[in-house]
Design a protein that fits this description.
Blueprint lengths: L15 H12 L19 H14 L11 H17 L7 E5 L2 H19 L8 E5 L5 H8 L3 E5 L9 H7 L4 E7 L11 H11 L3 E4 L7 H6 L14 E7 L11 E5 L2 H4 L4 E3 L7 E3 L9 H37 L4 E3 L7 E6 L6 H10 L5 E3 L4 E5 L8 H17 L7 H11 L3 H15 L9
Parallel strand pairs: 2-3, 2-4, 4-5, 5-6
Antiparallel strand pairs: 1-7, 6-7, 8-9, 10-11, 11-13, 12-13
Helix pairs in contact: 2-10, 3-10, 4-5, 10-12, 11-12, 11-13
The structure holds pyridoxal-5'-phosphate (PLP).
């Protein structure tokens, strides 16, 4: 369907059956997460869990978390999700927090809260507030810095892809409002040296936020299963806040993350109050206004129904599947795992410079897999879920074939996405890449909806 001009709300509504039919047709070309063809975006446990979440979500879909006095159930559910998560992530009786709509909102709010906290403590010195992040930090922190007028100071990674603590130390100054670390980082799946960063942060009186959006509901269970998990949560002195996404490895419905602070001394700077609005005295703990209770209830329901033993079992399956996948990838000549072998999120790429990994990805996509591509270094990315357990053999066989195919047909590297990515990598001016990306967005979101591929 093209063009915005002729699209209208139908004069007479069409039958609900037709509507459902049309929606099913729209969905046909979507990434196939039910058959575990995706390596990001969806944490799907299968039909039964999906139906359970749907029931819970619809039960609270119309309730509005905007007013927790009108919908006391939501305040209570959110409170219990926060308490359960605080318990899981080394919190104590002082730990407080809120549920947000997702990892991005948790990152945005942390930057806002620490900026406001700094402003309340010292009249801002010359220059803008600064936050120090490792290069591998999630892009949501770039967004937060941009939205809230905080300068982002990126420090390089060590050879093991973890934050360079000495480099962080060198960048701390009077305008530093926050240090961020990941547990683990999205691109490489490695946990930054949180204990060392905590000691450093404490010594300088600077807050340290741990972005455990990805690992918050994996690492605690891995630790219990005996994986070598370094200390990463509120147990570490110097860590002042941490966020974990329930809609990732917590297996809730989309729209649920938990943002925890060591105490109200931090959280209070996130609160918004406006006492002079004609519509009434307004208070808001987080970014959104109206918010469905669905995702809050689904987060609570997932934690209660899965339970600690359920999460341990799921984590065991994920890690066994990860190991099988990594062994399979390593058995393919010319490929290797680029990052920590002990995490369900990892990067893998070529050991042989002549192998174009993006051409391999294109071939995999022809076979129905949705592949995730990284830049710097050029690599592929996997986020393993329990749903991947039965497809490891099939995936590795396809990957082996595709690597062989690309070796035998080097011209494939000049086609499709591989060509596009190769071109982007060679463009010397990042500003040019940026302006091209903006043009793509204008076409995608323009009246004609022109998709790039
Ligand atoms: C996913 C993720 C985010 C952003 O979360 P969304 O839910 O996609 O908004 C932030 N940080 C890390 C480490 C993540 O993995």
């Amino acid at each position: 369907m093209s063009g915005g001009q002729e699209m209208r709300i139908p004069e007479e509504g069409i039958s609900k059956d037709e509507v459902l039919e049309a929606l099913r047709a729209y969905k046909n070309d979507d990434a196939d997460y039910e058959r575990a063809r995706t390596w990001s975006l969806v944490y799907y446990l299968g039909e039964e869990h999906h139906r359970f979440l749907t029931d819970v979500y619809s039960m609270f879909m119309s309730e509005n978390a905007l007013n927790p006095v009108a919908f006391r159930s939501l305040r209570r559910l959110e409170h219990e999700v926060v308490r359960m998560t605080a318990d899981l992530l080394g919190g104590d009786g002082d730990t407080v927090g809120v549920m947000t709509s997702g990892g991005t909102e948790s990152c945005l709010l942390a930057v806002l809260a620490y900026r406001e906290r700094a402003a309340s403590r010292f009249a801002l010195r010359k220059g803008r507030p600064e936050m120090i992040v490792p290069e591998s930090v999630h892009v949501a922190w770039e967004k937060a810095a941009k939205y809230f007028g905080v300068d982002i100071v990126r420090v390089p990674l060590r050879d093991d892809l973890r934050a360079d603590v000495d480099a962080v130390a060198r960048r701390i100054n009077k305008n530093t409002i926050l240090i961020v670390a990941s547990a683990p980082s999205y691109p490489h799946g490695v946990v930054d040296p949180i204990a060392e960063l905590g000691a450093l942060a404490q010594a300088h009186g600077v807050p340290l936020h741990v972005d455990a959006c990805l690992g918050g509901f994996m690492l605690p269970f891995m630790e219990r299963l005996g994986f070598g998990v370094p200390p990463f949560d509120l147990r570490v002195p110097g860590v002042t806040s941490i966020a974990a996404d329930v809609h990732k490895y917590g297996y809730g419905a989309k729209g649920a993350s938990v943002l925890l602070y060591r105490s109200m001394d931090y959280l209070k700077h996130q609160f918004f109050v406006y006492e002079n609005w004609p519509g009434g005295i307004f208070i808001s703990p987080a970014l959104l206004g109206t918010r469905s209770g669905g995702a809050i209830a689904a987060a609570w329901a997932a934690m209660k129904a899965i339970g600690m033993n359920g999460y341990l079992e799921l984590t065991r399956t994920v890690m066994e599947t990860t190991r099988a996948l990594q062994d399979g990838i390593r058995s393919i000549p010319g490929l290797d795992i680029l990052s920590d072998p002990e995490m369900s999120v990892f990067a893998y790429g070529p050991t042989d410079k002549k192998l174009n990994i993006f051409a391999v990805a294109d071939q995999m996509e022809e076979r129905g897999w949705l592949m995730d591509r990284l830049q710097r270094p050029e690599a592929l990315h996997a986020m393993v879920t329990p749903r991947h357990a039965p497809i490891v053999g099939e995936f590795i066989a396809d990957l082996r074939d595709c690597v062989e195919y690309v070796r035998r047909h080097p011209k494939e590297s000049a086609k499709g996405n591989a060509a596009l990515y190769g071109m982007i990598a060679r463009v010397p001016f990042r500003g040019l890449v940026r302006s091209e990306a903006l043009k793509i967005m204008e076409r995608m979101y323009g009246p004609e909806m022109k998709m790039p591929l």
